[in-house]
Design goal:
This protein is of the alpha+beta class and 425 residues long. It has ten helices and 17 strands. The strands form four sheets. Strands 1-2-8-3-9-16-10-15 form an eight-stranded mixed sheet, with helices on one face. The protein has a four-stranded antiparallel sheet with strand order 12-13-11-14.
Length: 425
C-alpha cells in the first residue's frame, strides 16, 4: 500500500487549481505540470496509445488479453482541484493506525479534524488517514481517482493471468469548474461505457445526479444624496435582498438531502447602483428543475412590475444557463453497467451504497454525449476544504474495484441481458 500512498502524494503536491474566470482549456497553465507527468507515468507502467491533446485531455489503452469479444470499457478521473480553496503548497500529513480521536491538522492555528464534528472518521479507526496541514485542500478530489486508475492499470499489466478486455482510461482538466467533459472526444475514446472514479466514501455507486443550472441576476439602482433620497433612490443591494427573501426558505443546501432540490446563493457583490447576485439551481426531477427556473423569472418579473411604472425601466435582468442534466435517463437503458460495478463491490466484500449524487460529475455530461458513465467511490471525504482527508485503505479498495470490474467484464456470458452491448469500431 505504500506504493499507492507515494503515488497519491506525488500527485497532490502538484498545484492544479482550475480557474472559472479563464477562457482557456485547461483554465490554468499549472494543470499541465501534472498532465505531462501522468503521460510519462502511463507510458512507464506499460499502457499503449498514450496521448495528450492541445487541451490536456489524456487517453491511454490497456489492450485486451482474451481471444473472445469483450466490450471496451473506460475509467475516467480529473486532475484539476477546486478553486473554492487553495490547492497550492499542499503538505499532506499521514496518520497511521488512526485511534478515533481528534487529529491536529495545524497546532499553530488550532485547526482540528474531529470525529465529534466529522463522524465519518470513526469508520476508519485503525487505518492510515491522509489529511491536509490545515492551510489547503488535499486534492483527493480527484487525485485519489487518478491514483486508483493508474495503480489498477499497473497491476493488470503486471498480472496478465487476470483476464480482461480492452480498457481505455481518460484524465481531464477543469472538471471542478464544470468543463471537464466539454472537449472530451467520446468517439476517440472508443468505449461502450465508462466509470468516473470521483465519489466519496467506500461503497458509493451513483448513476443519478442533479439537473443543474447557474443564474446571474443583475439589479440596477439609482443613487442620489441620502438626505434627499425619498422617492428617488433605488438601492440595488436592498432589491437583491428582497429577491433572496422571495426564494423558498427551506430549500437551501444546508436544509436539504437525498432527492430534495435547492437554490444556493453563493455570491453577491454590489453598491447602490448595481448589485450582482449569483446562485445555482439544483433538482433531480426534471420537471421540478424547470419550475425552479420559472420561479426565478417570476420573482424578477414581480420586482420589475413594482418599479418599472415609477422609474420607466426594468431594474432586474436575469441570465440562466443549464449546466448538466441527470444521467439516470441515459444510464437506465444500460443498467447492467451499474450491476457489474455492484457485483464487483460485493465480490470484494464492499457494501454498495447506491444513491443519487447531490452534485454532478464529468459522467453526467459524458452520458449525454453518448458514453454512459456511472460514478464510483474514490474514498475521500470533506472535499474542497482544509478538512479534506482520505484513508489509504479506501484508495486501495477503489483500485481493487477497478480490477474486479475489468475481470468481470471479460467473463463469458456476463451480459445475459436483452441489450447486450455492441462492439464499438
Amino acid at each position: 500500500m505504500q506504493h499507492i500512498i507515494d503515488r497519491f502524494i506525488s500527485y497532490v503536491t502538484i498545484d492544479t487549481e482550475s480557474d472559472p474566470n479563464s477562457k482557456t482549456t485547461p483554465s490554468t497553465a499549472k494543470q499541465w505540470d501534472l498532465a505531462n507527468k501522468l503521460v510519462e507515468e502511463l507510458k512507464t507502467i506499460g499502457l499503449e496509445d498514450v496521448t495528450i491533446d492541445e487541451k490536456a485531455y489524456i487517453m491511454a489503452t490497456l489492450p485486451s488479453n482474451v481471444a473472445h469479444e469483450v466490450p471496451t470499457i473506460g475509467f475516467i478521473s480529473h486532475f484539476d482541484t477546486s478553486p473554492d480553496f487553495s490547492g497550492a503548497n499542499v503538505k499532506p500529513q499521514i496518520v497511521e493506525n488512526y485511534d478515533g480521536k481528534d487529529i491536529v491538522l495545524n497546532a499553530e492555528k488550532n485547526i482540528i479534524l474531529s470525529p465529534d464534528y466529522f463522524k465519518d472518521l470513526l469508520q476508519y479507526k485503525g487505518q492510515t488517514i491522509i489529511t491536509t496541514d490545515g492551510t489547503t485542500l488535499l486534492g483527493a478530489d480527484d487525485k485519489a481517482g487518478i491514483t486508483e486508475i493508474v495503480s489498477a492499470m499497473e497491476y493488470l499489466v503486471q498480472h496478465p493471468e487476470i483476464k480482461h478486455g480492452k480498457i481505455r482510461i481518460g484524465f481531464t482538466p477543469d472538471e471542478e469548474i464544470g468543463r471537464g467533459a466539454h472537449h472530451f472526444d467520446v468517439e476517440k475514446f472508443g468505449a461502450q461505457w465508462a466509470y468516473t472514479m470521483d465519489g466519496s466514501q467506500v461503497g458509493e455507486l451513483e448513476y443519478e445526479n442533479f439537473n443543474a443550472a447557474g443564474a446571474k441576476i443583475i439589479f440596477k439602482g439609482k443613487s442620489v444624496h441620502p438626505g434627499y433620497a425619498k422617492g428617488k433612490m433605488i438601492n440595488s443591494m436592498l432589491i437583491a435582498n428582497d429577491f433572496i427573501n422571495e426564494l423558498p426558505k427551506d430549500e437551501t443546501p444546508q436544509q436539504t438531502k437525498g432527492y430534495e432540490g435547492f437554490f444556493h446563493v453563493h455570491h453577491i457583490s454590489g453598491h447602490i447602483e448595481e448589485t450582482v447576485l449569483e446562485l445555482i439551481i439544483r433538482d433531480h426531477n426534471r420537471k421540478k428543475f424547470e419550475k425552479r427556473k420559472e420561479l426565478i423569472a417570476k420573482i424578477a418579473k414581480k420586482i420589475n412590475k413594482k418599479f418599472t411604472k415609477k422609474f420607466g425601466e426594468d431594474i432586474v435582468t436575469i441570465e440562466v444557463k443549464d449546466q448538466y442534466y441527470n444521467m439516470k435517463e441515459k444510464v437506465l437503458p444500460v443498467k447492467y453497467v451499474v450491476d457489474i460495478a455492484e457485483k464487483a463491490m460485493r465480490e470484494l466484500d464492499i457494501k454498495p451504497i447506491i444513491k443519487p449524487i447531490r452534485g454532478g460529475t464529468d459522467g453526467s455530461q459524458l452520458s449525454f454525449m453518448g458514453l454512459p458513465c456511472p460514478n464510483i467511490f474514490a474514498g475521500g471525504h470533506n472535499f474542497h476544504g482544509k478538512y479534506e482527508y482520505v484513508p489509504a485503505e479506501s484508495i486501495q479498495k477503489a483500485t481493487n474495484v477497478i480490477i474486479k470490474i475489468a475481470e468481470l467484464t471479460a467473463v463469458p456470458g456476463i451480459f445475459d441481458t436483452p441489450e447486450k452491448p455492441k462492439k464499438r469500431k
